[in-house]
Amino acid sequence: MVKKGGVAYRCAECGYEAAKWLGRCPECHAWGTLEERGSSRPAITRVAAGAPSAPARPIAEVDVETARARPTGVSELDRVLGGGLVPGAVVLLAGEPGVGKSTLLLEVAYQWAATVDRALYVTGEESAGQVRLRAERTGNVHQDMFLAAESDLAAILGHVDAVKPGVLIVDSVQTMASPQVEGSPGGVTQVRAVTSGLVALAKERGLPVVLVGHVTKDGSVAGPRVLEHLVDVVLQFEGDKHSTLRLVRGIKNRFGAADEIGCFELREDGIAGVPDPSGLFMSHTAEPVPGTAITVTVEGKRPLLGEVQALVSQSSMPQPRRAVSGLDSARVAMVLAVLEKRGGLKMGDKDVYVATVGGMKITEPAIDLAVVLALSSSIGDVALSPRLVSVGEVGLAGEVRRVPNVGRRLAEAARLGFTHALVPPDSGKLPSGIRVLEVGDVASALNAAGHAR
After folding, report:
1. By Cβ atoms counted within 10 A, which residue in 12, 176, 339, 348 is the most buried?
2. What is the CB neighbour count within 10 angstroms for residue 100?
3. Measuring CA to CA, which residue among 452, 10, 77 is closest to residue 253?
4. Contact residues for 28 (Cβ-Cβ < 8 A; gap 6+)
5. What positions carry the motif RadA KNRFG motif (predicted)?
6. Parallel/antiparallel/unpaired status of strands 350-356 and 322-325
7. Is 309 helix (H, G, I), strand (E, B) or coil?
8. Rounded to whole angstroms, how far apart are CA atoms 214 and 230?
9. What is the tally of structural domains in the chain?
């Protein structure tokens, strides 16, 4: 506890108070987040009633037209946002450097200027000339797109007054600073102050604001945790530098589903949405290859077909190697143990490599059955049917458990030409056009996969 009248230091992440400065917060264990707050204030025990800014109304009389989303013109982004940008909403788009955040937002600014209203793009990381060159290269130049190179919050507000845009894009929030707050740009205090100022601007004028954010080494949004609480929508922009595929994943959304994804392809002439991305996550070979299995995962409301590849070989080392890419390594290790114990396959003296195709990352348990089939196919060196999909969670007893949205998954598989499916028992109403085989355990799944060839 802080002594009465003593100088208090408060953690910017969790609010913990200490009488002296500490390098690491004892509560949330974050480094460098304790800031001087002056003397501690006593807790408020009574609050006097004040005049409300507007009288309360029955909810049925509240006007909803001012809160309806407006499409940005980028359909894959609108899918994640829940239909588009809501007036007064603040969206935080975070991603690694070079992943394509600025390219995507230039496309948003262009589409907005061409179809809705003026768009103001403020950059603090590049000069206006550099942004103009990239806009010309990607074909995103419009007379109602306004560009400003600023790093001062007050100057941004001045540009908003002069331009009166329909959307404001700030690239990035870590490069902006407020003259009324101490600290360097990108620091905890400045990031919080700049974000609070832009949130207040958005709510006061009904102006949608899109903020670009940096990420840390572990992939989380850089800056204080309160940054994600201040904004209305948090989007994660993901992509492998060795692949052209980019994913916009919803993390927080006050206006729609928080687990949707949008798929994009980064090209030399810009970025384009991929409305049907299932083909990107599967390899295309003339003949079936042992060690591959097709599954259907669900991201938000979108079913996506993915391919799991496995390679099992005799190990020449005392400690066999296990390598996993695109999947949960702990879950793959569990499936290996179940396959050895319940499936009767020797795995302890073999090197095992398991990966997904196309840079796809799958964490849901519904792909366990596909991992089982891929591993057994590689051990036996026998290819599975190229028209077979499998969906199901594998338990420690070797049972195949039910997963949600089986009907939606199989409908997508049938649309793409798959004819057979292995699913858990009692999976509900299933679509026609695909032959469904219900399997209750790992042994029956291996047997059914062999007969489906």
Report:
1. 176
2. 21
3. 77
4. 11, 13, 14, 16
5. 252-256
6. parallel
7. strand
8. 16
9. 3
Write the DSSP symbol of residue 24: B
Same domain, 186 and 294: no
Same domain for 294 and 264: no
- 336 and 209, same domain (yes or no): no
Same domain, yes or no: 302 and 329: yes
Same domain, 126 and 181: yes
Strand, coil or helix: what is 375?
helix
Binding residues for ATP: 95-102
- The backbone region for 100, taken as left when phi is positive above 0, alpha when psi lies in -120 to 50, beta otherwise, is left
Positions at the binding site: 95-102
- The yes-or-no verdict on residue 37 having pLDDT over 90 is no
Note the pLDDT tens digit of each residue in 104-163: 999 999 999 999 999 999 999 899 999 999 999 999 999 999 999 999 999 999 999 999
At which residue do the structure tokens 């007379």 appear? 143
Beta strands in 257-371 (DSSP E): 261-267, 270-273, 292-299, 302-314, 322-325, 350-356
Looking at 258, 275, 292, the residue that finishes a domain is 275
User: Is the CB of residue 383 less than 8 Å from the CB of residue 288?
Assistant: yes
**pTM for this prediction:** 0.79
Residue 28 is predicted with a pLDDT of 80
Residue identified by tokens 């790093």 is: 151
What does the buried/exposed string (b/e) look like for 83-92 if buried means 16 or more CB atoms within 10 Å of the residue's CB?
ebbbbbbbbb
As a whole number of Å, the CA-based R_g of the chain is 26
Reading the block at residue 92, the tokens are 């935080």
Domain that holds residue 403: 280-451
CA angle 397, 402, 407 (to 5 degrees): 155
Examine the domain organization and report whether 269 and 340 are in the same domain: no
Half-sphere exposure of residue 437: CA atoms within 13 angstroms, side-chain side: 19
At residue 4, the pLDDT reads 47
Which whole-number Å values give the CA distances from 420 to 295, 389, 452, in the listed order?
11, 6, 7
Cis peptide bond N-terminal to 378, omega within 30: no
Domain harbouring 293, CATH code: 3.30.230.10
Amino acid at 428: G
Segment 326-335, tens digit of pLDDT: 999 999 999 9
| 8 Å CB contact between 89 and 208 | yes
**Distance of CA 235 to CAs 23, 166, 211, 215, 408, Å?**
30, 21, 10, 12, 25
Provide the CATH number for the domain around residue 213. 3.40.50.300
Interatomic CA distance for residues 402 and 365, integer angstroms: 10
* Confidence check: pLDDT of 24 > 70: yes
Specify the DSSP class assigned to residue 3. Answer: P
Q: Do 232 and 176 belong together in one domain?
A: yes
The helix/strand/coil state of 281 is helix
Q: Tell me whether residue 347 is in a domain.
A: yes
